[in-house]
Amino acid sequence: MAFWLMKTEPDEFAYDDLARLGRDRWNGVRNFRALAFMRRMATGDLTFIYHTGKEKAIVGVAEVVAPAYPDPNVDDKRFVVVDVAPRYRLPRPVTLREIKNDQAFAAWELARLPRLSVMPVPPELWQRILDMAKITPA
């Protein structure tokens, strides 16, 4: 299993929208590096949902429920989508400011490449974010 982060503008599509729908297609990604990451996603992978804009925070966790396939709304096979389903909202959002202030995240794409909309999350950073969000182990 791999871990990811996917960004969304909450005024357009928020974690709560995904929770309400139960499953949805993650589309609209046009950056080729982000698309390459999406092509690596597999069913069962987990992804943080990050709200951009005024929030700038990781707010929830979703699961990839269908791997990358061509975007059915675009006549260009370079553009792919994945299907995701909500898993849980974080008890406490983890802000970009917190991440940038923590040296453990210095090399991570979220701290270095703020415009990249999809990126991998190393397992140790995934756990660190869960700890920051006050997730207690099951």
TrEMBL record:
This is EVE domain-containing protein. InterPro entries: 5hmC_binding, EVE_domain, PUA-like_sf, THYN1-like_EVE. SUPFAM superfamilies: PUA domain-like (SSF88697). Pfam families: EVE (PF01878). PANTHER family: THYMOCYTE NUCLEAR PROTEIN 1. Residues 2-132 form the EVE domain. The lineage of its organism: Bacteria, Bacillati, Bacillota, Negativicutes, Acetonemataceae.
